[in-house]
Amino acid sequence: MAAIHQSITELIGKTPLLELVNYEKKLGLNAKIIAKLEYFNPNQSVKDRIARAMIEDAEEKGLLKPGDTIVETTSGNTGIGLAAIAASKGYGFRVYIQDQVSEERFKNIRAFGGETIKLSEVKEVKAVLDETGGDFVAAIKVLEEKVLSKESNIFFVNQIENPANPSVHEQTTGPEIWEDTDGTVDILVACVGTGGTVSGAGKYLKKKNPDLKIIAIQPGPGSLPNESDPLPPDITGVHPFEGVPEERIPKNMDRSIYDEKVEVETYQAYETARDVARTDGILVGTSSGAAIYAAVQIGKREENRGKNIVVILADTGLRYLSTKLFE
C-alpha cells in the first residue's frame, strides 16, 4: 500500500538519464551525450516541475485560495502542467497561449478542463506583438497590466518572473543530475525559455563543482522573425537571451550562471530530433532536438573528449505529431 500515490504531484521529478549510445556511434563522438528524459514526468515535460512548485508556493503564501482561477501565458508545456495540477487540486485554469504552437497543446489543456485563449485574440496583446515582431515578454507585461489587473479571484502565475521556477530546478533537477551521475557530470546543456532550468539546475551544479560548464541555447538568427520572414518556423518555447534588449530577457534568467551560449537553427533541431528517434528510440520535441544538437557540437571539441555531457530534453515528441517535425 505504501507505493500507492494520492496525487499526480507526487509523481513529478526523478526522471531518468539515458546515454545516447547509438547516436554517439553514428557521429563517432568521443564524448558521452547523456539525456535527462523529462517526458517521464506525468504530463510529459519538464514544466511539470515548475507547475507544481509555483502553485504550491502560491498556496503557502495565501496568494491562491479555493475558488480561484489560475491564469498563465505559455507556449504550451507549462500550461499543460498547470492545467493538470489545477484539475487535481480543484482550481479553474485559463491560459493565454502563443498562436503557432501545435494543436496537441490546445487539446491537452482543454482535456484537463482548462480554457485556452490565443494571444492574438486579445487586442491589447496583439497590438504589442505586431509592434515588436512577436516579443513574448512584452506581450505578457501588457496582458498583466491591461487585462488581468482588472480581474479578481485569479492567480497569475507569471513563470518568467516567479522565483519558484528556478528554485525548484535548484532543489530537484540539479541534485538529480549530480546524484545519478555520481558527480561525474562535466557539462550541462539546456535550452532557455523562461531561464528557470538553466539558472536553477546550473546554480546547484556550480556549487557542487565550480569547474562544471553550463551551456545555454538560444535560437539562431534564421529562426527569429525578420522583415522578410515575420513568422519563420521556430523552436517552440526557446527564446533569445543575448543580443536582445534588456527588457526582453526573462527575469528568471541568471546570466551569471552559463559559461557559453550556442545558437541553433530550427532545421538543425528538427533534423536532430528525427535522428535520435531512429537511433535510440526516443521521441522528443524541437527544443530537445536543439539541445542535443548543441551538445554534439560541444562534444566534438577535442578538449571535451571523454567528458560527460548531460542534456535536458524538455518534452515528448508526441506533442508535435500535427507539425512538420517528423515528416
TrEMBL record:
UniProt entry keywords in alphabetical sequence: Amino-acid biosynthesis, Cysteine biosynthesis, Pyridoxal phosphate, Transferase
InterPro entries: Cys_Synth/Cystath_Beta-Synth, TrpB-like_PALP, TrpB-like_PALP_sf
Record pathway: Amino-acid biosynthesis; L-cysteine biosynthesis
One family name in Pfam for this protein: PALP
Residue ranges the record marks as coiled coil: none
GO molecular function list: cysteine synthase activity
Keyword Cell inner membrane: no
Top-rank lineage group of the source organism: Bacteria
Domain Tryptophan synthase beta chain-like PALP: residue ranges: 8-315
Reaction catalysed by this enzyme: O-acetyl-L-serine + hydrogen sulfide = L-cysteine + acetate
Similarity section: Belongs to the cysteine synthase/cystathionine beta-synthase family.
Stated name of the protein: cysteine synthase
